[in-house]
Amino acid sequence: MSSSDRSRAVDLTRTYEVRTYGCQMNVHDSERLSGLLEGAGYVRAPEGSDGDADVVVFNTCAVRENADNRLYGNLGRLAPMKTKRPGMQIAVGGCLAQKDRDTIVKRAPWVDVVFGTHNIGKLPVLLERARVQEEAQVEIAESLEAFPSTLPTRRESAYAAWVSISVGCNNTCTFCIVPALRGKEKDRRTGDILAEIEALVGEGVSEITLLGQNVNAYGSDIGDREAFSKLLRACGKIDGLERVRFTSPHPRDFTDDVIAAMAETPNVMPQLHMPMQSGSDTVLKAMRRSYRQDRYLGIIDKVRASIPHAAITTDIIVGFPGETEEDFQQTLHAVREARFAQAFTFQYSKRPGTPAATMEGQIPKEVVQERYMRLSALQEEISWDENKKQVGRTLELMVAEGEGRKDGATHRLSGRAPDNRLVHFTKPDAEVRPGDVVTVEITYAAPHHLLAEGPALDVRRTRAGDAWEKRNAAEAAKPAGVMLGLPQIGVPEPLPVATGSGCGLD
User: Which cofactor does it need (predicted)?
Assistant: First the structure.
């Protein structure tokens, strides 16, 4: 290639940036969006580019009230940048795009593409069409066009991966708009899920997280009530798969066969994130949550009886319409009984289009805030007490990337214990890579992390660490520019299938 050709290649390089808001489903969708764009010839913009990319994609969430303000605020900040950069494009996708399809371009006419939760595979085509026709493209599918896992992906991690087993939700929680935006539950074939997992393990992945809006309802679409527990057990037979997690389950569908599968499958981790939302039976009924406090706490008791060291985390909403002080006291009681390792607590956020938005008894913000502070203080105390129980234990950590913000200054590394607790540990003399496994003894506990201040007891190099090292070498060897090809028309070819047996507010 001549010097002029190389210059032209650099000039034709188009960069992209994907900004993700919301749940793990959105994070996984964003990996697909990145894969689609790179398959169409785009190059990921450097970290910290802050909108200085040729294509900026917002993958949005519609669960909380500030979602709209956050999106339009960010779009407003990009408007002058777009004016100064001819050819720059902005796309908005995800749940908020599905909900506000008719208003986004009206409120932000400089947006080029609006796409929904069901047609993320169309993004490259819509960008090209907007460029050629010089007008905004708004395309919202009402039903799923292609299961997300059939699309190309650019995974954020070389050693851990999300695997979607279902999309949509059949629940009718009065505070949640997600079912209206992602549709009814649709399950993947078990063989396709296992084939994807085996392909990922073949690439060096050693930890997978099974994803679903209501993950343990898996099987309802295919008529098998024990399909989820069978899937967990099947994951246990995949050679090289060291850790299996799942999120988020619903208490309604948490059956004894799932608990048995968790306890009896060695690579299913001793961790459970199960949203409680409220400890008040009255509020749970108003939320249309099909369980009560006794049922929820009973599940936790069974899990702990079968998996004594399980770390249990949850989601809780404070200030739901009609919540009295007595109701709130029931939530505090449930938190004391459950002894959560951590709780993600939210102040109730009114979402237009949900039944709760028009309910009587909306709670004044100052009351909600005061209850939220009391709940947070209680959970902080419990989290610290539960973490103190880990001191003296010997744990195997999977070394993580980017988890410890102070690691450079403290000469530590960070990793995740089997129960997903974050542990900062003294950097060993031997080389340690993300994805490798380090054995340490816990010496100190804080409310949100643990410390292992002594020397590592063992360092195990893994195929996952090899995969991380290989990816980093490949990234460093990439040329400065690539020729931009036209995007493929229609849904891209599916991922290769391996042979063999592949919203947090639920």
Answer: [4Fe-4S] cluster
Token pair for 26: 């959105």
Q: What is the DSSP code string of 311-375?
A: EEEEEEEES-TT--HHHHHHHHHHHHHHT-SEEEEEE----TTSGGGG-S-PPPHHHHHHHHHHH
The order of strands in the sheet holding 444-445 is 444-445, 450-452, 422-426, 412-416, 394-399, 437-441, 458-460
Cα–Cα distance list, 198 to 17, 151, 239, 319, 394 (Å): 29, 17, 9, 44, 30
Short-list 462, 386, 373, CA closest to 421: 386
> How would residue 11 be classed by pLDDT, with cut points 50, 70 and 90?
very low
The confidence score (pLDDT) of residue 97 equals: 84
Tell me whether residue 95 is annotated as binding. yes
DSSP E strand stretches across 348-504: 394-399, 412-416, 422-426, 437-441, 444-445, 450-452, 458-460
- Dihedral angle sign, alpha carbons of residues 79, 85, 86, 90: negative
Q: Please give the single-letter amino acid code of residue 249.
A: P
pLDDT digits (tens, 9 = 90+) for 458-505: 999 999 999 999 988 877 766 544 333 333 333 333 333 333 333 444
Question: Hey, what long-range contacts does 287-291 have (CB within 8 A, 24 or more apart)?
Answer: 287/173, 287/174, 287/175, 287/317, 287/320, 287/356, 288/171, 288/172, 288/173, 288/174, 288/355, 289/173, 289/251, 289/252, 290/171, 290/252, 291/251, 291/252
503 labelled ligand-binding = no
Model's pTM, two decimal places? Answer: 0.79
Residues 469 and 192: their CA atoms lie apart, in Å, by: 28
Contact 213, 164 (CB under 8 A): no
3-state secondary structure 49-105: CCCCCCEEEEEECCCCCCHHHHHHHHHHHHHHHHHHCCCCEEEEEEHHHHHCCCCHH
Share of the chain above pLDDT 70, in %: 88
Residue 46 corresponds to which amino acid? P
The angle subtended at Cα 220 by Cα 216 and Cα 223, nearest 5°, is 130
Does the annotation flag 169 for ligand binding? yes
For helices 190-202 and 227-235, the axis angle rounded to 10 degrees is 20
Task: Record the tokens describing residue 283, joined without a space.
Answer: 């509020």
